[in-house]
Amino acid sequence: MSRFRGHHSPPTRRRTTVKFAIALAAALILVVGGYLVGEWLENRSYQEERQQMSENFGLLPTMEYQGQTYMRRPEVTTMLLMGVDQHMDEEPTGSRHGGRADFLLLMALDHKNQKVYQLQIDRDTFTEVPVVGVLGNEVGTRAMQICLAYNYGNNNEERCRHTVQAVQMLLNDEPIELALAVKLDGIAVLNQALGGIRVTIPEDMTVVDPAFTAGATLTLTDAQTEKLVRARMTVGDGLNVSRMRRQRTFLEAATRQLRSMLASDSDFAGRLFDSLEAISSYTNVTRGRLINEANRAYNYDIQPVDTLAAEYKIGAQELMECHVDKDAVTAWLIKTLYEPKN
Q1: What domains are defined for the chain?
Q2: d(C-alpha 315, C-alpha 195), whole Å
């Protein structure tokens, strides 16, 4: 992968909540923020020179499935968003304690059909993960929860690369072009910029906040926003898949609110972009490339967030394991990235 730029906490079984919030802000920046950036540039009659979205045109990969040959579509750009369970002021303590990527969202920007596909990957997904030894040297892969891929590496570039590699291995070794890892701190920035995100609470969550009764519609404070997207063990069945549904509820509400504010306030886009730009991240995406991708995709049709069919079980280490159906992986790739070869 190309160079990442940019910053831990060791994995603990007893931690009852996981810090997802900043990754949700990142998803908004890139999925909905694509519209924001594009409009902002368009209003200024500004356009950067666009690069080719696929550098390997003419060397397109193929795959076989149920007797049919499929070819990779070159006009689709893939980007992985990683939400890391730490604050900006937290520093790693070693090559095997880098933190966890507890929110994983793969985006596929289809520039031909003008659609944005999204795949949310359960952090408990059990797959091969690149690991390093006690001296920081790479020692192969091991089957574990995919969120732990970010835990391994001597720096953030390596942690991002290992997480991307783990997702690629999960998705039949499908290459991922762009990657962005972000931390927790940005949720307050996003919530404040939107004047408090207004959501309908999908289930009884009064155990984490007395105001979170099922069906209640609230304008969230910063603290409530974090509770909504983080709470897991004490809510409902305690499963991460249930928390993922609540995260999608949050994203949909924030998306609606963002679009409404963009339509009513011509200066809002610039102010929000300036605020979000200040949030540090670790990425292999240059600013120019991100602007180009966003500018192309700002009016695309954003598809509902997909998940992969899977079976769940408690593993040997008493941790939840999500075992993804491989046919579901292939079906998603065909839906978003491949087409039948004539």
Answers
A1: 21-49+62-194+280-340 (3.30.420.590)
A2: 43
